[in-house]
Amino acid sequence: KMDDDDDIPQLSSHTLAALQEFYLEQQQREGMKTSQGFNQYSVGSIEEDWQLSQFWYSDETASCLAKEALLAAGKGGRIACVSAPSVYQKLKEQDGEDFSACILEYDRRFSVYGEEFIFYDYNHPLDLPENLLPHSFDIVIADPPYLSEECLQKTAETIKYLTKGKILLCTGAVMEEQAAKHLGVKMCKFIPKHSRNLANEFRCYVNYASGLD
Predict the structure, then answer these.
(1) pTM of the model
(2) Which reactions is this enzyme annotated as catalysing (predicted)?
(3) Among residues 142, 139, 137, which one has the least CA distance to residue 122?
(4) Residue 47 counted as domain residue
(5) Which residues lie across from 118 on neighbouring strands?
């Protein structure tokens, strides 16, 4: 008789290994969350939601970008993170530093950050709370969720509204021309990494003399 197992789709060993790794990671992460001293601000405390096109930076990249933002903002500086929650989370870990930060984000899970969270939909780039004054941030870090000119153009309106001047943009290498066109930013040598490898090459762009070269 036919072997009943034939109908069962077999996962390749590669897929199985990847799945096991994923579950293991999840267990470890859950374990971390329940262990004492779990920091709700730490990168990864809110899981990536790929349907929202979210991809968190690696810990090193998030730290590096947060440090750059602090330097660029200066003492008592104000930093806006537009669709860049992992940088915001790293900033929150810098306890006692003299600066303030806001997170503009579509994902309402980040409302755990209280008043610093501002709901943001790039389709309505200037639909912002009244108390968010124009040109009130020393630096804006932005990571538009999609690699499309439309998304960049609309996010650029928000960035230009918020910043006093300095811009740090993270997006695909393919967006270099559009980034220059809409924001006047140039590519840095620094290569941002994500906690999961993305297919698209990712780069940072700035419009000031940064520490990312």
Answers:
(1) 0.77
(2) L-lysyl-[protein] + 3 S-adenosyl-L-methionine = N(6),N(6),N(6)-trimethyl-L-lysyl-[protein] + 3 S-adenosyl-L-homocysteine + 3 H(+)
(3) 142
(4) no
(5) 104
